[in-house]
Amino acid sequence: MLFVFASTANSSVSEAPSAEISDTIAQIEVRDIRQSTVKQSMAVASTFVGMQKIDGQLINAAKDFSAIVPNLYMPDYGSRMTSSIYLRGMGARIDNPVMGMYVDGIGLAGKNSYDFDLFDLRRVDVFRGPQGTLFGKNTIGGVMNLMTLSAFEFTGLRASVSYGNRQDAKATVGYYAKPNDKTGVSFSCNYHHCDGFFRNAYDGSKADAIDEASTRLKVGWRDSGTGREFNNVISYNFTRQQGFPYHFAGQQVNHNDECSYLRHNLVEGFSLSIPVGQSTLQSTTSYQLLLDRMKMDQDYMPLSYFTLMQQQQEHYLSEELVLRTGTYYTADKRVRWHSVNGLTASYRYNNMTAPVTFMQDGIDSLILKNANNGLRSAGFADNILISLTEQSFVISSDFLTNSVNLAAYHTSYLNFGEHWLLEAGLRLDFEYMKFRYLSKGTLHYNISGTTVNNRPVSSRVEGNDPLSYIELLPRVAISYNRNDLTVYASVAEGYKAGGFNNQLFSDILQNQLMKDMMQDMGVEFSTTQDYKVSEVITYKPERCLNFEVGTRWRRLIGDRHTWQSQLALYELEVFNQQLTTFPQKGTGRMMTNAGHSRSMGAEFSVQYNYKGLELAAAYGYTHATFTRYYNGRQDFAGKFVPYAPQHTLHASATYTFSFDHDIVRQLSLNVNTNALGPVYWNEENTEKQDFYALFNANISLKMKYLTLQLWGKNLTQTSYNVFRFVSMGNSLMQSGKPLQFGGKLTVDI
Fold first, then answer.
1. What is the mean pLDDT of the chain?
2. Percent of the chain beyond pLDDT 70?
3. First to last CA, the chain
4. What are the Cα distances from residue 320, in Å, to 39, 113, 270, 417, 433?
5. Could you tell me which residues come within 8 angstroms of residue 532 by beta carbon, excluding any fewer than 6 positions away?
6. Residue 374 above 80 pLDDT?
7. Residues forming a β-bridge with 238
8. Fewest CB within a 10 Å sphere: which of 121, 300, 495, 643?
9. Residue 294 in 3-state DSSP?
């Protein structure tokens, strides 16, 4: 493990004054009962990142926690819609995530809302391993809890501006006030513009430029005398960006049609907590609205093959009641018991349209070529050829998904004596979904040498398919806690929701149109599909069983040295693993269940503080392979699961000079690195990104009201890829971001 130490210089150094906003764990209150329960439990692998590190290392999005959290990888590619998450060898590129994300106790409805600019972030807690017993579906790998600053922790004005290369400009302002001792109100907003890092060689345009604006209003009321409180948070995010800067190996981004993403996202959350005897009852209600639109040149070439415009309107409503009982003792007071009990209900309505426009190059190579080959196979003469009247045509696809989720859960906590804690929990989760789809298209064809001219053919695929399942999610854990040492073992199950393959319908209808056109001519035609439609409409939930042992140690040596370390070893058995695949002969993509995989690994983190010096490191190792996966053509047993890195590494060294001066308070120097790899890009394991490291540094000068930072990322200009895939037989990729540098000025009044 390599640490880089910041060199010291002769200066007037004194004890650091107490920070206006402390990062001390003990001073942070987690308002959500489930979150605080997990935090107080010793039997979980966890990472806590405070405000000082978030600001000091320029963490601006959830993706920036990759490698800082062992075995967590959120690659930065595509667009804000692309929020792929890989944790402990699990993850998929589309649909449901393996990690739940909460903002101020409100669970975000889907991963389309996960990627946004973070501002005035107070603290981040990440709990690794299945958290389904308390948090339900799509927490198969863990939970990330983002807590923003509130008026109960800071009052006054907080504003910042930053500027970096590629016209990367950000501005944030927030006002935090306490009208009285019980009430806190804050309002904050953020704006971000960046020209992006890639150019489209086709027309010289910016391939990944972004404009983003967010605002957040928080109102809280707390009565310490009665224990009652409520909190309301409403936030809105607007994103407009050029996206999907994919390119061929050794070439630049080069496409002739628009690639972009537009998003409106509104989240309203209200929580109420009241004491009930010795217990506490908490209600959390949220409403979320997502309106977004994606435009994509799906061939990613300067040719006119086909384009996609996907729009969706999603409404999500959820309610959760949680009762945390008081502590009860046996007669001899050697055994203590308390529990967490919950009921949840949620409803999701998603209306999506996804028309695909086929243009001349796509018509020629994907439709007419196959159709005319079909004529040759049927014995027609070479001069009998099919052509289309249209130079372009649209395959329209409309999808309506309604889903209901109901759950009940219970977890008991038993303390035996002074050192032992036993946890046992069970969740019953029920999911019902209804999927209505209609995909249709019309074209007109001609046959040379015949009287057939401008003859119409129409095709449609429609249905109304249900999907339901019941999941039982148990968790058992035991921990031994003595002084500063904790040792634990746990077994837990989790699941990732199943769903419907709506991104495959353009391929389905394209083949149906060819088949109907040939049948209209009296020719039997075998479609080019390498799958059965009835078998790919739905995919099953992914389930995992996690066995884990771990330890954590925190030691205060004297009054200046602090040592914290954590180690976890785990084995994950994953069943019906969900993988994104592209049909070999088609143009769509779909989710498939890949049988069985096994992931074994380790996670280690350490932090050492002495006076102004802080050294920190986090390492994750994952060995995730298929134990059973045959896709009908090839057996992948023993192959590494794609897209999940085998190693993640974060190392950081910070030295802070503290000055006994009324104006100049602190000077901090930080160097850090985030490294990961190798990452395999396919199930065959023939393509991969080797292990690579990104080196970063920043200098921060803290004054009475101002903080000035100078920063740089990827200082060694490491060249690497963050994404690679195959479509229409072509290998495409996205490069990682090059050197970045800039400055930031923060005002706290």
1. 89
2. 93
3. 40
4. 19, 20, 11, 33, 20
5. none
6. no
7. 213, 264
8. 121
9. strand
Phi first, then psi: what are they for 529, rounded to 5°? Answer: -70, 140
Per residue in 315-360, pLDDT (tens digit) is 999 999 999 998 888 888 888 999 999 999 999 999 999 999 989 9
Cα distances (angstroms) measured from residue 64 to each of 49, 57, 651, 698: 12, 9, 14, 15
- H or E stretch covering 241: strand 228-242
8 has a pLDDT exceeding 60: no
pLDDT band at 363 (very low <50, low <70, confident <90, very high): confident
What contacts 250, CB < 8 A, 6 or more positions away? Answer: none
- Reference 301, options 243, 369, 251, 368; nearest CA is 251
pLDDT over 70 at 586, yes or no? no
With tokens 């910016």, the residue in question is: 206
Mode of pairing for the β-strands spanning 335-353 and 260-276:
unpaired
What lies within 8 Å, CB to CB, of 464 at 6+ separation is: 434, 435, 436, 437
- Describe the crossing of helices 505-520 and 369-377 by its angle, rounded to 10 degrees: 40
Reply yes or no on whether the pLDDT at 22 is more than 60: no
Average pLDDT over residues 381-388: 83
At 202 the pLDDT is 94
Please return the burial class of 128, using the count of CB atoms within 10 Å of its CB with bins 0-12, 13-18 and 19+.
Answer: buried
To the nearest 10°, report the CA torsion of 353, 314, 30, 141: -40
Rounded alpha-carbon distances, angstroms, from residue 73 to 69, 409, 452, 576, 737: 8, 30, 56, 21, 16
- Using alpha carbons, list the distances in angstroms from residue 632 to 435, 583, 584, 638, 643: 27, 12, 12, 16, 22
b (16+ CB within 10 A) / e for 116-127: bbbbbbbbbbbb
Higher local confidence (pLDDT), 656 or 224 = 656
Amino acid at 159: A
Is the pTM for the entire model greater than 0.70? Answer: yes
Question: Which residues make Cβ contacts (< 8 Å) with residue 645, sequence separation at least 6?
Answer: 73, 86, 622, 676, 677, 678, 679
Q: Over the stretch 107-121, which tens digit does the pLDDT of each residue have?
A: 999 999 999 999 999
Instruction: Write the DSSP string, 410-446.
Output: EEEEEEETTTEEEEEEEEEEEEEEEEEEEEEEEEEEE
Q: What is the dihedral of CA 390, 395, 396, 401, to 10 degrees?
A: 180
Dist CA 402 CA 113 (whole Å): 19
Q: Which tokens in the block code for residue 530? A: 């390498």
The proportion of the chain whose per-residue pLDDT surpasses 90, expressed as a percent, equals 67
* Closest to 119 (Cα-Cα) out of 80, 162, 84, 166: 162
Q: Domain 25-702+711-729+736-748 adopts which CATH fold? A: Maltoporin; Chain A (2.40.170)
Nearest to 732 by CA among 253, 82, 248, 254: 248
Q: Could you tell me the two tokens for 690?
A: 């080797």
Q: Which residues contact 699 (CB under 8 A, 6 or more apart)?
A: 667, 668, 669, 670, 709, 710, 711
Question: Identity (one letter) of the amino acid at 259?
Answer: C
Residue 720 to residue 735: CA distance in whole angstroms:
6
Rounded-to-integer distance, Cα 717 and Cα 502, Å: 39
Residue 584 has what pLDDT? 55
Distances (CA, A) of 628 to 93, 451, 634, 636, 707: 21, 55, 11, 7, 55
